[in-house]
Amino acid sequence: MTLSTLAGVMTLSAGISTFAISGAQAGPAPLVIAVEAPLTGAQASNGIDMARGVQLAVDQINATGGVKGRKITLIKLDDKADPALALSMVTAAQKAGAVAVVGPYNSSVGLINLPKYIAAGITPVQMTSTDQTTGMGVTIQPKNSQISPVEVAYITGQKVKKVAMLVDPSDYTKGMADRTQAALTAAGITVTTTPITEGQADYATPVKTALATSPDLVYVSTYFPEGAKIATALATANTTAQCFMGLANVDPAFVTGAGVVNAQRCKFSGVPAAAQLPTAKRFVVEFTKAFKTEPGVWGVFTYDSTNLLASAIRGAGSTKITPVLAK
């Protein structure tokens, strides 16, 4: 039960209870922060890792006295990576009295609800990578304009002449593919694109279409549930084309879905999992102790985002969005 609900129940109780509460010396009100991520659905492994990163940071902050004496209450918002749920996440955050949100992760969700969070005075420390959300709160997440040049440099360095793209038409994945295709075309590489639909049982047909162009490299701009199935289809096709997986495929669940051998056949764009980062050793130990599992890729980002948010609130001396963002 949240504090606001508890207060409402007490106010509606007998007069003596109301009097007792009003006469008691109340402590500082908690600081309500939300985390928005796909906590259920196909991308749940990613979202749960993000929520755990926030939870670990909140627990550690609270253990040292909170933020200016106020303990943090964390609420979890499950958007299922579904843009149709984007606005309901803002409503839920408002009802809970949240002053800030870590998330969302999916660009297609953030394009809809980040402006609404800001209009509601809720500070977003967001996790989207599309450049279209730049300036909508703050982020430590890499953006398309930062990721694509690295991918292009790698692909052109392979001396390939033909690239076949398999593309999820959602905002982030399509935006990345479009940007990368333009750069590869400018470099004299022939690029073809085959769209895919999320949630299919397998992707043998679009993979066959892509391979019919005789590519030297197959570029996969999807999220990891689809990417794992595409990696499996590529292995079954026994192609000699290189396999290149875009950033949204980076998740331990990709390996689970595709299998180790099929996953190792592909190169990945993105960042290592926390356990592979020398600077994250302490985080990995603390995360593993708290949740009995190693962190994935994005939990360390939300952990740092939460600590960044707490530091900004302390520095601003306020939870208001304008002074917090200024920090």
Per-chain topology:
Layout: H1 3-11, H2 15-23, E1 31-37, H3 44-63, E2 72-78, H4 86-96, E3 100-102, H5 107-119, E4 123-125, H6 144-157, E5 162-167, H7 171-186, E6 190-195, H8 204-211, E7 217-221, H9 224-237, E8 242-245, H10 252-258, H11 260-264, E9 266-268, H12 281-291, H13 299-316, H14 321-326
Parallel strand pairs: 1-2, 1-3, 3-4, 5-6, 5-7, 7-8, 8-9
Distance N to C terminus: 32 Å
Q: Portion of residues in helices? A: 40-55%
Please identify, by name, the CATH architecture of the largest domain.
3-Layer(aba) Sandwich
Low-confidence stretches: 1-24
- By secondary-structure content and strand pairing, the structural class works out as alpha/beta
Put simply, the count of helices is: 14
Strand runs, count: 9
| CATH fourth-tier homologous superfamily of the largest domain | Response regulator
- What is the third-level CATH name, the topology of the largest domain? Rossmann fold
The Rg value, from CA coordinates, equals 22 Å
**CATH class category name of the largest domain:** Alpha Beta
Largest sheet: 5 strands, parallel
Shape: elongated
Order of strands across the main sheet: 6-5-7-8-9
Percentage beta strand = 5-15%
Mean pLDDT: 92
Query: Which series of helices and strands comes N to C?
Result: HHEHEHEHEHEHEHEHEHHEHHH
What is the domain total for the residues?
Answer: 2
